[in-house]
Amino acid sequence: MPGLKTRPTLCSNERVMKNIACIVAALIVVLTTCAAMQDSTIVTNPPETFTMRVVSSGLEGPWEVAWGPDQTLWVTERTGRRVVRINPSNGARSVLVTIPEVNTTFTQDGLLGLAFHSDFVKDPSNRLVYVAFTYDDAPGTALARRLAVRRYRYNEGASSLVDPVDILTGLPTHTDHAGGRLAFGPDRKLYLTIGDGGSNFGPNLCNANHAQDLPTAAQVKAKDWSNYQGKILRLELDGSIPSDNPVIDGVRSHVFTWGHRNPLGLVFGPNGPLYESEHGPSSDDEVNLIEGGRNYGWPNVAGYRDDKAYVYANFSKSSPQPCASLGRGAGNGPIPASVPQQKETAWNDPRFMPPLRTFFTVENDYDLSRIGSATIAPAGIDYYASNAIPNWNNSLLVLSLIRGAVYRLSLAPDGKSVQGPPVEMFKAASRYRDIALNPDGRTLYLATDPSGPSRNLPQGTQTLANPGAILEFKYTGN
């Protein structure tokens, strides 16, 4: 991956075939390093016990699951293009709306985030639901991918979402790192994550990364949102720019924070703190406290500004060899001499905000090519505020895609730091996409991907456990 250092493997293939001692030595190194990479402080056998059952299966890419104001689960289907409502007691489900213009052409686009108006229950005039989705902005010609936020009104009598209004359209997206998570804030504003489009990575290796680029006044006036990649936006409920949004480099826009890579989790804690989870390059997945007007560093910094295992290798600036001539494999090995490199500490911005926690910060000799990526691939995040499960109150629950686990992080009383080690729970051969909490404090619901890689799959197995499902985990005691 771009910027992550590698070193030669311990043994050549020919020698491995001929020398059993070398195989044993290699296995010892791999196992030892993997244990360190996974962080030995993580609690992997917590005392809590839960029962698990499948609430619903056969869903087409469940992406968001939310505890609805009608005591049911509301789920967006990324590839199904539907918002469905599921009865958590018996799994019965109904379609609230189908959105045919949702465009799905890769593994991260489609129908994504969902958020309820905070007055949904107490004020019939505000039974409003907001969704984020990708669409084709130029149908009939070359595909023009964009991201939009749309508002619906809930018609209880018809049990459907009606009266669609697009409140913000033309937002940038690409073939990777779409973001798309929505949250309704206690300030009655909408918050939306947008990824960096996969720039400087994989098939998009030669695309310039714009996570640090901020909109100009001229762009805002022209409603040109192209510099919104790698940002968290703050919107009025009609999609306009709030008058109290931060002024960043002299410009007020929808941008609340910047310097994000692939932000897939967003949740408010009590009294207003906003928390986010996002993917690192191949290490340094982040859990962040989000504060307006702050820079979260990407692509200049991955995780902490510590010069550990990451340098910013800007492939789009490769010279004299153009990036296109380097081949796609260039991002997985040693950085070519033609590609400019920059250490994390060579970059400085007083507005930089370090993460609350990373998964995982590794040392400079970490061998990506031999061990594999040091990542949990975080997806959704939620805040747990209850005494129903002992010692859980004031915790963040962070989901992992590739490791098929939920990580509980205990927060300090002020919510501004993490106390103690993460606790790993519910490990399975699944990819956990999102989480919803029952108000009883004892029951959690997890949405699973229908496909994709998982490190928990038995060797030679391709099928995930409970793909495309909503799973219930109910606390039974310690």
Written description of the protein model:
The chain is mainly beta and 478 residues long. The protein has one domain (13-40, 65-384): 6 Propeller (Neuraminidase), CATH 2.120.10.30. 7% of the residues lie in helices and 35% in strands. It has 4 helices and 28 strands. The chain has helices spanning 13-18, 20-37, 217-221, 368-371; strands spanning 49-56, 62-67, 73-77, 82-86, 93-98, 111-116, 128-136, 145-155, 160-172, 179-184, 190-194, 231-235, 247-248, 251-252, 255-258, 262-268, 274-279, 285-290, 311-313, 341-343, 357-359, 378-384, 395-400, 406-411, 418-425, 432-437, 443-448, 470-477. Strands 1-28-27-26 form a 4-stranded antiparallel β-sheet, with no helix packed on it. Strands 2-3-4-5 form a 4-stranded antiparallel β-sheet, with no helix packed on it. The protein has a 4-stranded antiparallel β-sheet with strand order 6-7-8-9, with no helix packed on it. A hairpin with a 5-residue loop joins strand 17 (274-279) and strand 18. Mean pLDDT is 91; it is low at 5-36.
Summarize the SSE layout with pairings.
Elements: H1 13-18, H2 20-37, E1 49-56, E2 62-67, E3 73-77, E4 82-86, E5 93-98, E6 111-116, E7 128-136, E8 145-155, E9 160-172, E10 179-184, E11 190-194, H3 217-221, E12 231-235, E13 247-248, E14 251-252, E15 255-258, E16 262-268, E17 274-279, E18 285-290, E19 311-313, E20 341-343, E21 357-359, H4 368-371, E22 378-384, E23 395-400, E24 406-411, E25 418-425, E26 432-437, E27 443-448, E28 470-477
Antiparallel strand pairs: 1-28, 2-3, 3-4, 4-5, 6-7, 7-8, 8-9, 10-11, 11-12, 12-15, 13-14, 16-17, 17-18, 18-21, 19-20, 22-23, 23-24, 24-25, 26-27, 27-28
